[in-house]
């Protein structure tokens, strides 16, 4: 499984479209309603070849407690997915940086 994350969705989409396999975008939204994040990460890792998460941090902390909890869950899910992935790629300004694995695997 390949996990792609980063702040610029358009760059990730372009990069991800070049990769073969079953993919799921915006996995971070699934974390908000998940009762068991490790189970969700296992399920996603087994069902998809490529998982894409938009980075939701960036230093601005929401005032709303639910929004803060959702961001926390999204970050925890991203960590769980990165641990399960053979390759982790961070996108920044449309440039892929491999954080785990090798680009040839991606």
Can you put this structure into words, describing what you see?
The protein is an alpha/beta fold. It has one domain: P-loop containing nucleotide triphosphate hydrolases (Rossmann fold). 42% of the residues lie in helices and 23% in strands. Strands 2-3-1-4-5 form a five-stranded mixed beta sheet, with helices on both faces. Helix 3 crosses helix 4. The radius of gyration is 13 Å and the shape is globular. The mean pLDDT is 84.
User: Which fold name fills CATH's third level, the topology?
Assistant: Rossmann fold
Tell me the number of helical segments per DSSP (H or I, 4 or more residues long): 4
- Which descriptor suits the 3D outline? globular
Our measurement of the CA-to-CA distance between the termini, rounded to an integer number of angstroms, reads: 9 Å
Strand order of the largest sheet: 2-3-1-4-5
- Beta-strand content estimate: 15-25%
- Tally of domains: 1
Mean model confidence by pLDDT: 84
Judged by helices, strands and strand pairing, the structural class is alpha/beta
Low-confidence stretches: none
Protein name: Cobinamide kinase
Keywords: Kinase, Transferase
GO biological process, one term: cobalamin biosynthetic process
GO molecular function: adenosylcobinamide kinase activity; nucleotide binding
